[in-house]
Specification:
This protein is an alpha/beta fold. The chain is built from 15 helices and 14 strands. The strands form two sheets. Strands 3-2-1-4-5-6-14 form a seven-stranded parallel β-sheet, with helices on both faces. A seven-stranded mixed β-sheet has the order 8-7-9-10-13-12-11, with helices on both faces.
């Protein structure tokens, strides 16, 4: 893994350039940055960039995605890492609260976990920070008045992250993960994608490009119309589940698939979650249903559920984010994460230097930062 971490760091051209700049300008001198984000090689590159800018970094991971080699590497580089890999929500909660006990001036959040807990025990020195995901923005948007006047910039609402990471990179990595974990073909298979935001669009396009027949379930009528215009079938839920051989959730919501869907699922269907939280597929409720006769954890990343009527259901990575679970979890492409993490570094710099107003609470990345990162990418990657 160390060699893979070095490979990733050497290929993050934007972060390498920002690291050199931050080492000279020290925008985070005497500041603590608290993070709760997937700990894997690309986030190693980001956290070391922040450290180069003078920050004391206190980090923990997300549920089921922390890679031990990344933790070991970060600790060797002087980063304080709280906890290790866990699938237990209570343990994860303790890790997050320990990060906040350091009272970081800046928070780099992923899913709103840290900011939600900050509101339970607020402290004066917090200046603001960033939120990485759609899921986090949805959680924090209704709490703007409580979070104000601390600026919080939502990385996911940058057009760069929308097309580079969410649409292109997540679509590719979910397809790659399906192929790697199952070793099954997509050709001619019926794929049903729940959600047609930027992530769902990328997943649908990637599986269609892999010669699957793709349908989309989307509750927003405008997005459903867009899916139709993009050439995807948009059946009602019952009809879509009846024919689907692969079902993928990408909504940011909870309980998208649950025990109520068991009767509708096709024999040998594969269930995949591509969303941030491991609750889009209600795994615990499905496992507790009396129609599930037994469970078998087979090849790495595949759980087989046998129903009382003889049907089988295959669940990938226990309902956790598929591209950061299972064997050899690679996540999104280096280039896409280099872009997204360059946005993170620049946004945290802006908050630290007081370049954001008190009205910038749970708002998209400023246009000036988008332009700066886009121009740098085009220059460094040509």
């Amino acid at each position: 893994m160390t060699s893979r971490i070095e490979w990733v760091r050497s290929n993050c051209r934007l972060l390498r350039a920002i690291t050199a700049e931050f080492a000279a300008t020290a925008p985070f001198r005497d500041l603590t940055i608290g993070t709760g984000i997937h700990l894997e090689p690309k986030t190693v590159a980001l956290l070391l960039t922040l450290k180069a800018g003078g920050a004391r970094v206190v980090a923990t991971g997300n549920l089921n995605s922390t890679q031990p080699e990344a933790v070991e590497y970060l600790r060797a580089q002087g980063i304080t890492v709280i906890g290790d890999r866990t699938t237990e929500e209570r343990e994860h909660d303790q890790y997050l609260r320990e990060v906040l006990r350091a009272q970081p001036e800046l928070i780099l959040d992923n899913g709103g976990d840290l900011f939600i807990r900050y509101l339970e025990s607020p402290y004066e020195r917090l200046r603001g920070g960033t939120e990485e995901t759609t899921s986090g923005r949805m959680r924090l948007a209704g709490l703007r008045s409580q979070l104000a006047p601390r600026p919080i910039l939502v990385i996911n609402d940058s057009p760069i992250k929308q097309f580079a990471e969410n649409r292109h990179a997540v679509g590719q990595s979910v397809l790659e993960s399906y192929l790697r974990i199952t070793n099954r073909a997509t050709n001619g298979r019926h794929v049903l994608v729940f959600g047609y935001g930027s992530v769902g669009r990328g997943i649908a396009a990637s599986f269609r490009n892999a010669f699957a027949t793709v349908s989309v379930i989307e509750i927003d009528p405008v997005l459903r119309l867009e899916a139709s215009f993009d050439g995807f079938d948009v059946p009602d839920r019952a009809a879509g589940l009846k024919t689907a051989e692969i079902v993928i959730t990408a909504t940011g919501a909870q309980g998208v698939l649950a025990e109520a869907d068991l009767d509708a699922l096709r024999d040998r269907v594969v269930l995949i979650n591509a969303g941030h939280f491991p609750a889009e597929i209600s795994v615990d409720r499905i496992l507790a249903d009396p129609r599930v006769a037994r469970r078998h954890d087979g090849p790495e990343g595949v759980t087989r559920l046998m129903l009382t009527d003889g049907r089988a259901i295959h669940l990938l990575t226990a309902g956790h984010m598929v591209n950061l679970g299972g064997p050899r979890p690679l996540g999104n492409s280096i280039e896409s994460m280099d872009l997204g993490f360059a946005l993170q570094a620049r946004c945290l710099e802006a908050v630290a230097r007081g370049r954001c107003s008190q009205d910038h609470v749970v708002v998209p990345v400023p246009a000036t930062i988008n332009a700066l990162v886009a121009e740098a990418f085009l220059e460094l990657y040509r």
